Amino acid sequence: MGGVKGVKGRIAVVGAGGVAAAATAKIAKHGGAFKEMYITSRRLGKCEELRESILARGTDVKVEAAALDAEDVGSLTAVLGAIEPELVLNLALPYHDLNVMEACLRIGANYVDTANYEPVDDARFEYGWQWAYAGRFKEAGLTALLGCGFDPGVTGVFCAHALKHHYDAIHTVDILDANGGDHGHPFATNFNPEINIREVTAKGKYWEDGNWVETEPMAIRRSYDFEGIGVRDMYLLYHEELESLAKNIPGLRRIRFFMTFGESYLTHLRCLQNVGMTSIVPIEYEGAEIVPLKFLKAVLPDPASLGPRTTGKTNIGCVMRGVKDGRMKDYRIYNVCDHRECYLEVGTQAISYTTGVPAMIGSMLLMTGVWGGAGVYNVEDLDPDPFMEALGAYGLPWKERFDPEPVG
Ligand code: NDP
To answer: Does domain 10-149+353-390 sit in CATH 1.10.10.10?
Structure first.
């Protein structure tokens, strides 16, 4: 087995946004696995802000801050190389994944992220780019763990758990992501606006009988009753874990992903799309080149600022159908998370929390050698049991039902 030996317990986190705020707060409270944490990002001030808030809450972990540019492999290699972490937790943007993986190989560190690589000038994500690193990580005796947030992340672990404990074969999976939070803004996104809007304006796609079926954006709508939230409309989107789960769940016949959106969000988004503000094609404006979506991000509320004003809950999980002992079996597994409670605990809303906590858990399992193996892995490749146990212990308890409402 490869993976981390856990000698120093030193982790470097890349990125100092909302997800990093939740993950670093949790790392700071679990000094058993982590002894030293380096928070690194583009702006030193943001890293220092996070460091200060962690120290103010109290921790046994040594916390340091450093600036780096994740667009530049040289900068990543120099800064991370000087830190000598056993593990790099990449919580910057999906555009940076390959650079951070490359830097990890150069300095001999293990790697964890929460989002699939996506080229900055092409709103298209697929695991192929990162899976292509498998040989190099294997040869170096290092682990890269991909997509260890909630979705992707926990949803993949839920599937592995279901396969291990509840099914002989899973035939269908629907991943349902509901956010019943209210932040009081007419339009804001709960995580990085640029990444969020690229995701929801893309064509929908799901996998059925061995083929990908493409739909127009938001063309398929269903209604579902979510515990803690109530009945909500949800829309079919393409989401990255569909690619790895379609490959990794043997005998799977169909897998889809749905996310809830409120009327105000959809109306604003439609309007912004109609006037060209969600485009990633650069335009010239007063002699300078700007990307409309990047400009839009600059005027929208910073997701990190939503923490103190968001109330309500998230409910994210899966509905499955499959066979156990020759009989059809229906199964639902999910987590309900409260925005306000997350804010009181770590200073972020639930979207950052539900991503940052699994990122910490995946890092902890690698750091302590419970998870390991040289190569590139998705979460469902590894034993779900220790992860499922840690979810409950670290703030994301899950519930199971055996009579779920079908999605239709
Ligand atoms: P934020 O935009 O809040 O944070 C991103 C951080 O990366 C910021 O600190 C930003 O710095 C930093 N950064 C940006 N560019 C660079 C650069 N060139 N060099 C160094 N640092 C840089 O995003 P979130 O925290 O909301 O999201 C973080 C990641 O988590 C994203 O990849 C997102 O897709 C993923 N995610 C995954 C989810 C899941 O369930 N799997 C759910 C939600 C998010 P600055 O502030 O200076 O711009």
So the answer is: no
Tokens of 242: 């569909």
Helices (H), 192-291: 193-201, 241-248, 263-274
- For ligand 1, whether the C-beta of 16 sits within 6 Å is yes
16 near 47, Cβ under 8 Å?
A: yes
CB atoms within 10 A of CB 232: 20
Cβ-proximal residues to 327 (8 Å cutoff; 6+ apart), any chain: none
CA-to-CA distance for 362 and 147, rounded, in angstroms?
10
Note the pLDDT tens digit of each residue in 362-372. 999 999 999 99
Contact 222, 258 (CB under 8 A): yes
Question: Could you tell which of 13, 14, 19 is best to mutate to test the pocket of ligand 1, judged by most ligand atoms within 8 Å of the CB?
Answer: 19
* Residue 58 backbone zone (phi > 0: left; psi -120 to 50: alpha; other: beta): left
Rounded distance from Cα 390 to ligand 1 centre (Å): 24
The answer to which of 56-70, 239-253, 294-308, 360-374 has the lowest mean pLDDT is 294-308
Atom of ligand 1 nearest to the CA of 151: 40
Q: Which CATH architecture has domain 154-346?
A: 2-Layer Sandwich (3.30)
Q: How far is the CA of 116 from the centre of ligand 1 (A)?
A: 12
Ligand 1 mean position, distance from CA 94 (Å): 8
Work out the average pLDDT over 171-187. Answer: 95
Which residues, 6 or more positions from 88, have their beta carbon under 8 angstroms from its beta carbon?
A: 11, 12, 13, 14, 80, 100, 103, 104, 109, 110, 111, 112
89, two tokens? 């937790």
Please, where are the H alpha helices in 149-304? Answer: 154-165, 193-201, 241-248, 263-274, 292-299
Q: How many whole angstroms separate alpha carbon 357 and alpha carbon 107?
A: 26
Residue range(s) occupied by CATH 3.30.360.10 in the chain: 154-346
Residue ranges of the chain that CATH labels 3.40.50.720: 10-149+353-390
**Is the distance from the beta carbon of residue 150 to the nearest atom of ligand 1 less than 6 Å?**
yes
* Residue 7's pLDDT band (cuts 50, 70, 90): low
Contact criterion met (CB below 8 Å) for 158 and 177: no
